[in-house]
TrEMBL record:
<keyword id="KW-0862">Zinc</keyword>
<dbReference type="InterPro" id="IPR050492">
    <property type="entry name" value="Bact_metal-bind_prot9"/>
</dbReference>
<keyword id="KW-0732">Signal</keyword>
<keyword id="KW-0406">Ion transport</keyword>
<dbReference type="InterPro" id="IPR006127">
    <property type="entry name" value="ZnuA-like"/>
</dbReference>
<feature type="compositionally biased region" description="Basic and acidic residues">
    <location>
        <begin position="115"/>
        <end position="157"/>
    </location>
</feature>
<comment type="similarity">
    <text>Belongs to the bacterial solute-binding protein 9 family.</text>
</comment>
<keyword id="KW-0864">Zinc transport</keyword>
<protein>
    <recommendedName>
        <fullName>High-affinity zinc uptake system protein ZnuA</fullName>
    </recommendedName>
</protein>
<dbReference type="Pfam" id="PF01297">
    <property type="entry name" value="ZnuA"/>
</dbReference>
<feature type="signal peptide">
    <location>
        <begin position="1"/>
        <end position="19"/>
    </location>
</feature>
<feature type="region of interest" description="Disordered">
    <location>
        <begin position="115"/>
        <end position="159"/>
    </location>
</feature>
<keyword id="KW-0813">Transport</keyword>
Length: 325
């Protein structure tokens, strides 16, 4: 009788015991890092479509449900994904979420500092006049001064932190700790995945650095000012951007300035982005021999899996190499 009762008890409890942690992620690069640790032991629900941009994203009821149903929400932060602030607060998920920008150990870049460096590096005193009016902010002040702005704020912290392998490792460690606390039965699995991720990341980083060293003196222009983590990590030669923020189209004056920069700096490539219309790039390059290619900062075509972040780094470095080489 006891054996029957025990068997019935196990059968009743097993669905609960086998339930996977549910992790809601904001954008695909976040999902890539989470997947490296979670493997097949957690359910990842991504909020922003892989083909959409977080810069102009609007929440739908189905997205709100992902937040409500999640054990943890992993996002980059308010300066990139302002649309998540209220939903996280309303769902009572703010305190339990993992905000990448706020994690201890992050190496953050400040937009104002980057452009100050550009003035010295390229001796170009007019290129970023619209940035000089902003005060420099300390790295952890990214939550101040955002009222009244849509998209992300280009006077403070650069939120594109997933483009730094070092920062990816910081998130991987935070995700590991959270999954271990949510699902202690699989703690060794998550910890083992972290060890594999760190080892694989070190090897991939060295491989990419070696490849990009061949083109790190070649000048180029990007679509928008969002690649500094990758560029500084690998020592690449960015001499400008088409638009300060993807949701703003450059005016005639800016177009003329960019054409001047292309000629003056002997630019070899002007990158577009698959999330935005390439029409402005075509207009800029009419009548020139300058190459153009898409540069995908979100890895929209990368297949999800435990090695997705490595594939993303491979893809991004390959896009640079193909146009600069």
């Amino acid at each position: 009788m006891n054996k029957v009762f025990l068997a019935l008890g196990v059968s009743v409890l097993s669905p609960l015991a086998l339930a996977k942690p549910v992790i809601a992620t904001s954008i695909k690069p976040v999902s890539m890092v989470v997947a490296a640790i979670a493997g097949d032991k957690a359910d990842i629900q991504q909020i922003v479509s892989s083909t959409a941009s977080p810069h102009d994203f609007a929440m739908r009821p189905s997205d709100l449900k992902k937040i409500t149903d999640a054990d943890t929400v992993v996002w980059v932060g308010e300066s990139l994904e302002r649309f998540l602030e209220k939903p996280l607060e309303n769902a009572g998920k703010e305190a339990s979420s993992i905000e990448w920008l706020a994690l201890e150990g992050m190496k953050l870049h400040n937009f104002a500092e980057e452009h100050h460096d550009d003035h010295e590096k390229h001796d170009d005193h007019e290129k970023h006049d619209d940035h000089e009016k902003h005060d420099d902010h300390e790295h952890h002040d990214e939550h101040e001064g955002h009222e009244g702005h849509e998209g992300h704020d280009h006077s403070g912290i650069d939120p594109h932190v997933w483009l730094s392998p070092d920062n990816a490792l910081v998130l991987a460690k935070a995700v590991t700790a959270r999954l271990v606390s949510l699902d202690s039965a699989n703690a060794d699995y998550y910890k083992g995945n972290l060890v594999s991720f760190e080892k694989g990341l070190g090897a991939k980083d060295a491989e990419i650095r070696n490849a990009l060293n061949k083109v790190n003196k070649v000048p180029y222009i990007v679509f928008h000012d969002g690649y500094s983590y990758f560029e500084q990590h690998y020592g690449l030669q960015n001499v400008g951007e088409i638009t300060v923020s993807p949701e703003r189209k450059p005016g005639a004056k800016k177009v003329a300035e960019i054409r001047h920069e292309i000629e003056e700096n002997k630019v070899q490539c002007v990158f577009s982005e698959p999330q935005f219309s390439p029409a402005i790039v075509k207009t800029l390059l009419e009548g020139s021999n300058v190459k153009t290619a898409p540069l995908d900062p979100l890895g929209s075509q990368i297949k999800m899996g435990t090695n997705a972040y490595f594939s993303f780094l491979d893809s991004l470095s390959g896009q640079f190499l193909n146009c600069l080489g």
